[in-house]
Amino acid sequence: MNAIPQAGASPDAPRTIQPAWVRIAHWLNAVAVVLMMLSGWRIYDASPVFPGLTIPTGITLGGWLGGALQWHFAAMWLLFFNALFYLAMNLVTGRMRSKFFPLSPRAILHDLGEALKGHLSHADPSRYNAVQRFAYLFVMLDIAVLIVSGLAIWKSVQFPVLRELMGGYDSARVVHFCAMALLAGFIVVHLAMVALVPRSLLTMIRGR
Ligand code: HEM
């Protein structure tokens, strides 16, 4: 919801760029994602999908397989219900359409080119450029794939169709791992972009 000046509000009152519900959902999501990723790495190490690829224990969470599973299962509810809330609010308020669309491959390539030349304007912090739109929609979809592939691994007997859609139990683990790796890549780029435009961090903390 981009702030529309309210009746009676002072014309130069600061505009809300990120409504409170977006900020709350964003930070809860960041906590859940970090907990799930660190504990997931410990679970992975107990039985690596890719022989020879293990994650250094020092950067994992949970201490041992049982502990990591408890962290993973606890954080998954936060990730799931928070994602549901964020998605529902974005759809109900119309923010999904106004903030992330329209979007086209041409616009993404154009804005990417401008960004690489250092010409992309950040003058209007209430608008996402096409690359941001694409990146944020991509990560939403990626988290959905993580949740669905996670469900296929967790309840593979109860959800045989889901498991087979993923190509079987072992492929579901590969899908889950690849989606995690893409999410990790997003986080690295996301943090670099925030560091380049620190003003955006303020809007994600105090709303304007
Ligand atoms: C760890 C997983 C994270 C994910 C999956 C994630 C995802 C997202 C998404 C989808 C948005 C767009 C939200 C919307 O407008 O509805 C966003 C915005 C933003 N995120 Fe994150 N985020 C993560 C972590 C972080 C962290 C750790 C920081 C800061 C250190 C951060 C800073 C921001 C900022 C400042 C914005 C607004 C950017 C802008 O105005 O362009 N995010 N993030």
TrEMBL record:
Keywords: Cell membrane, Electron transport, Heme, Iron, Membrane, Metal-binding, Transmembrane, Transmembrane helix, Transport. GO terms for molecular function: electron transfer activity; heme binding; iron ion binding. It is found in: Cell membrane. The chain crosses the membrane at residues 24-44, 64-89, 134-154, 174-198. Residues 18-207 form the Cytochrome b561 bacterial/Ni-hydrogenase domain. It is a multi-pass membrane protein. Pfam families: Ni_hydr_CYTB. InterPro entries: Cyt_b561_bac/Ni-Hgenase, Di-haem_cyt_TM, Hydrogenase_cytochrome, Ni-dep_Hydgase_cyt-B. GO terms for cellular component: plasma membrane. It comes from the Bacteria. Its main location: membrane. One of its GO terms (biological process) is respiratory electron transport chain. Belongs to the HupC/HyaC/HydC family. This is Cytochrome b/b6 domain-containing protein. It comes from Paraburkholderia ginsengisoli. The lineage of its organism: Bacteria, Pseudomonadati, Pseudomonadota, Betaproteobacteria, Burkholderiales.
